Design the sequence.
């Protein structure tokens, strides 16, 4: 057999999905086992279920700095992003939409669909470091701009976007034209990893997802600031203030809430530790040579858990599979892309060449990552690159 | 009155002294593919009992050697019983007024008192009396009630075409190179159709190809085994060969050199499974490396015949076949197959045999082949159990 014997698994793909935390598993189990009611039912069991839902909503809202009624639970980040984009546009006449060109595809695909349907859409460029260009964004604003969407942390390279600065541009638009576009930010990769409050960002809409922080897959939320009008995507029941029909995924929501509580409790220490490991990994990889960093080294403007690097000449998926043989699990770009053989749209937007963009891997750390994991990962990179160096034309 | 399925075979009926062996193989293949069904071997056809289910007909469409099949009613060889059977079938179909029909009798048992045309007329008359809306028409009727009179009589209205060909297992064994693409599964299907048992061989090249691409090949073999019977997929590691070729050989010759090593590995596998030929999905001129010169240089790497059943087909014809076989949807899944990373920018389209031979002096071919064979993994693949309604 050519497969090596099992070794310790070093899972460094937390940005794709992070393993469920123990207390999340317990919370989900607890609800499945003991909470049978539908929150919409009139009887006592319905009330019990509703209490679980309310408590979870409060927990998530508090972590966002929002009011509970401003949190709309969804089936995940993708649905929340779809709801933010379609929900805004459908509720307005002749809207103009601006998004950054390296948003997640759950923002990009909806706006592309809207553009096909005749909605005016502009894509804002990003700089080589991986930050949205505020000057370009200012130029794209129009009197009838209804929605601006800029993600808080880019999911492939981990850069923290100047969302509060974007809000300031929207103030100027309001002064000039008397109308203020809504500000949406996709905070799926930011939540829990980069502290923020919706009030400081002054976002009107904000997307989060449970399974990037150790919660269950299949649950997320959209923060909808009080007073913001949206059209629902899913009709058929007045759950979630009429913004999302359907019986809520109560067990998932309770698990989400448990994950949020974990990060509320342990977050400060964890974030510091992730950053420390992030620095270590970066330093350990540096001497390998031939690497091109796609994540800037500035700790103030990057998330503490994402590192993206290109090895020109070695395709990302080949390095992923090679590292897998050393027991190290990373990804090419974002997980949603990794099955397509297309170069990352994020890196292309950042001005990387096709070759650089298709030779990138993303390493993302999580709560269970240890110093030893980082050392093993660095060694695995060294061994793998030595092995694959023959692919790089000298 | 018993519901049975008649299974006809054509070509193998012609095979003289081999005939009993061919029919016996078809019999075995059907028994294996149709669990729970009783198969009876008659003089020139097979009768299936406990076979009244759609999945049985579906399997008969995929069993080589079968030319056609018909769900039929088996009754005593007398007119009243035949009439009752025909009435049952017609009632099932729901004959609207104006439906055109005819009766077509074949009398294999010549002791039956009426001639075939006489049976046609008499049964036709009785059916019309019972279903007044029926209109007789000899040319292209909507319903043809067929009656086979043997020891018993078989009455049926449907004839489902089978795939034809010869029963798998009557033609010896071949080892087939199976990539994840569209062509090679079709090539396997074509030789299996001529009765050949196939051992598929896949070259797996981690980390250049993923675990998913191997799973894709397993799924292809599962679909193929609905036609070819259970198969053993041989998976051979190949990354070390690609690496060696890439490091040591001039770029234009990468493709031909790689194919030649694959052929050598296949020859060794053939020896182990006692196969008498190799099969590839190569066609002529589809890609630059599939020139006559390239095929000659590749074929020279083995003493076994290399069958290339797709050689005369266009891409569109191959695609249509893959769709019929059921492999197309799997083949077009986007995981990379083994070769994409090692495609030279400008392959030599007409490599001479001498060139290919000389290039290989830079490689320890034997060691590469041995290393590949040392890493063999054999995966038994069978078709998913039929959905029995």
Sequence:
């Amino acid at each position: 057999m050519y497969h090596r014997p099992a070794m310790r698994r070093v899972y460094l793909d937390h940005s794709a999905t992070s393993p469920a935390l123990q207390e999340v598993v317990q919370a989900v189990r607890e609800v499945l086992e003991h909470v049978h009611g539908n929150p919409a039912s009139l009887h006592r069991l319905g009330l019990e279920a509703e209490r679980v839902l309310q408590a979870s909503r409060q927990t998530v809202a508090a972590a966002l700095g929002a009011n509970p009624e401003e949190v709309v639970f969804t089936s995940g980040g993708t649905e929340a992003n779809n709801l933010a984009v379609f929900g805004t546009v459908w509720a307005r006449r002749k809207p103009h939409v601006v998004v950054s060109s390296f948003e997640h595809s759950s923002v990009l695909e909806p706006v592309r669909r809207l553009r096909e349907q005749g909605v005016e859409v502009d894509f804002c460029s990003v700089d080589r470091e991986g930050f949205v260009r505020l000057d370009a964004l200012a130029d794209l604003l129009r009197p009838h701009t209804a929605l601006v969407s800029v993600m808080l942390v880019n999911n492939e390279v981990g850069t923290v976007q100047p969302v509060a600065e974007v809000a300031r541009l929207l103030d100027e638009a309001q002064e000039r034209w008397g109308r203020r576009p809504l500000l949406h930010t996709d905070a799926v990769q930011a939540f829990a990893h980069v502290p923020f409050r919706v009030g400081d960002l002054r976002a009107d809409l904000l997307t989060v997802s449970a399974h990037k922080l150790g919660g269950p897959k299949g649950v997320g939320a959209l923060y909808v600031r009080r007073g913001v009008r949206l059209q629902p995507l899913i009709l058929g029941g007045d759950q979630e203030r009429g913004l999302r029909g359907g019986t809520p995924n109560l067990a998932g929501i309770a698990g989400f809430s448990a994950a949020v509580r974990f990060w509320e409790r342990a977050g400060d220490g964890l974030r510091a530790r992730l950053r420390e490991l992030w620095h270590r990994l970066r330093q350990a990889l540096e001497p390998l040579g031939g690497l091109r960093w796609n994540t800037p080294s500035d700790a103030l403007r990057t998330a503490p858990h994402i590192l993206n690097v290109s090895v020109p000449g070695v395709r990302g998926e080949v390095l992923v599979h090679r590292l897998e043989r050393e027991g190290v699990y990373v990804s090419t770009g974002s997980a949603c892309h990794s099955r397509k053989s297309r170069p990352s749209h994020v890196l292309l937007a950042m001005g990387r060449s096709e070759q650089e963009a298709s030779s990138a891997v993303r390493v993302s750390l999580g709560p269970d990552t240890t110093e030893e994991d980082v050392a093993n990962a660095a060694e695995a990179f060294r061994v793998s690159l030595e092995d694959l160096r023959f692919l790089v034309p000298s | 009155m018993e519901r049975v399925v008649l299974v006809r075979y054509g070509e193998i009926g012609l095979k003289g002294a081999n005939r009993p062996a061919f029919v016996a193989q078809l019999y075995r293949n059907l028994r294996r593919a149709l669990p729970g069904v009783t198969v009876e071997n008659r003089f020139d056809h097979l009768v299936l009992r406990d076979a009244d289910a759609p999945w049985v007909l579906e399997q008969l469409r995929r069993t080589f050697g079968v030319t056609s099949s018909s769900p039929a009613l088996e009754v005593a060889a007398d007119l009243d019983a035949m009439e009752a059977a025909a009435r049952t079938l017609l009632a099932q179909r729901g004959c609207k007024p104006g439906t055109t029909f005819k009766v077509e009798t074949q009398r294999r048992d010549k002791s039956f008192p009426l001639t075939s045309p006489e049976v046609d007329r008499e049964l036709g008359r009785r059916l019309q009396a019972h279903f007044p809306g029926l209109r007789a028409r000899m040319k292209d009727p909507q319903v043809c009630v067929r009656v086979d009179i043997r020891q018993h009589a078989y009455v049926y209205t449907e004839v489902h075409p089978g795939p034809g060909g010869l029963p798998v297992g009557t033609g010896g064994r071949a080892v087939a190179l199976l990539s994840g693409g569209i062509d090679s599964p079709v090539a396997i299907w074509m030789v299996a159709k001529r009765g050949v048992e196939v051992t598929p061989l896949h070259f797996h090249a981690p980390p250049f190809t993923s675990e998913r691409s191997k799973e894709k090949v397993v799924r292809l073999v599962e679909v193929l085994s609905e036609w070819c019977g259970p198969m053993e997929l041989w998976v051979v590691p190949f990354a070390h060969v690609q690496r060696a070729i890439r490091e040591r050989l001039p770029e234009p010759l990468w493709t031909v050199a790689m194919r030649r090593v694959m052929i050598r590995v296949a020859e060794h596998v053939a020896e182990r499974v006692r196969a008498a030929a190799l099969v590839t999905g190569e066609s002529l001129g589809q890609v630059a490396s599939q020139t006559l010169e390239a095929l000659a240089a590749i074929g020279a790497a083995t003493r076994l015949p290399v069958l290339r059943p797709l050689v005369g087909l266009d891409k569109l014809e191959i695609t249509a076949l893959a769709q019929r076989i059921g492999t197309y949807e799997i083949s077009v899944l986007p995981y990379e197959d083994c070769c994409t990373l090692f495609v030279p920018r400008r392959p030599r389209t007409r490599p001479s045999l001498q060139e290919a031979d000389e290039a290989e002096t830079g490689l320890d071919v034997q060691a590469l082949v041995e290393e590949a064979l040392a890493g063999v993994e054999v995966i038994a693949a069978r078709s998913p159990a039929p959905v029995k309604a």
In short: The CA atoms of residues 255 and 294 of chain A lie 33 Å apart. The interface with chain B takes residues 1-2, 315, 317-325, 339-341, 384, 388, 390-391 of chain A (CB under 8 Å).
